[in-house]
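Supplementary Methods. Inverse-folding protocol.

Structures were first reduced to a discrete structure-token string of length 258. This string, shown here, constituted the complete conditioning input.
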């Protein structure tokens, strides 16, 4: 899921269950099968362990385009998170509120056949195959829920909201992580896009060690492949990352800037 920076009004969000199943077409099922085959190869090649474990734990390896109700129920049974069906971009305020409440927004729409390799707009494949696997990892979901809580607390500051959006982008969407001496894919935008995957793999000089200040200073553009990718030293860094963010924001030099 990608978000748009919106106004800073407190969110009024209700987390209803997924609506009645949308009728997916034969074309959708064909696109899904093509996307899944490429994705599976990428995942088995170089995704982080938590990604692969969640993929199998949720039964996403079936390769079937499943009703969102079924996915939400399976997710809730596995980890307590639920899905909320949405149309396209979600406003930042609603997004962080959902994460805080352990509800993940998922787009109904599937990318068109002409854009299978790269979908700048949020789509069903990205949200399901990119985000769901990691939602069964407790370290990851604690990070996401805490990110949501901090996001809600920070809605009064457009500057902090922008920094948090960059943090999300450079970890959840396009992050890399070091595991057993090699660099693995953590970011959902890389895992679900053949173009982003090839770009991230080919341009190894564009990798930067994860640094909070550098992340906050690095704008993101989700309409194209990334100019650089941040590498977390370990997956467990997610356990302490939001505490580091809070300390960073509370530092006198940062507090004065707000
Ligand atoms: Fe996403």
């Amino acid at each position: 899921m990608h978000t748009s920076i919106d106004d800073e009004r407190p969110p009024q969000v209700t987390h209803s269950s997924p609506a009645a199943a949308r009728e997916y077409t034969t074309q959708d099922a064909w696109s899904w099968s093509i996307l899944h085959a490429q994705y599976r190869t990428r995942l088995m090649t170089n995704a982080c362990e938590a990604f692969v474990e969640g993929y199998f734990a949720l039964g996403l390896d079936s390769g079937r385009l499943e009703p969102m109700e079924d996915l939400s129920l399976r997710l809730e049974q596995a980890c307590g998170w639920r899905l909320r069906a949405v149309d396209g971009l979600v406003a930042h305020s609603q997004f962080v509120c959902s994460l805080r409440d352990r509800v993940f927004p998922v787009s109904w729409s599937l990318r068109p056949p002409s854009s299978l390799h790269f979908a700048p707009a949020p789509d069903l494949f990205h949200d399901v195959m990119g985000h769901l696997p990691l939602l069964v990892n407790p370290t990851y979901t604690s990070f996401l829920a805490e990110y949501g809580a901090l996001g809600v607390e920070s809605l009064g500051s457009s500057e902090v909201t922008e920094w948090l959006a960059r943090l999300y982008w450079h970890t959840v969407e396009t992050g890399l992580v070091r595991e057993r001496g090699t660099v693995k894919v953590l970011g959902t935008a890389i895992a679900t896009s053949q173009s982003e995957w090839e770009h991230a793999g080919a341009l190894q000089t564009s990798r930067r060690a994860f640094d909070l200040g550098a992340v906050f200073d690095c704008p993101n553009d989700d309409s194209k492949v990334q100019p650089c990718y941040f590498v977390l030293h370990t997956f467990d860094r997610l356990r302490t990352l939001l505490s580091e963010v809070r300390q960073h924001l509370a530092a006198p030099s940062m507090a004065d800037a707000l």
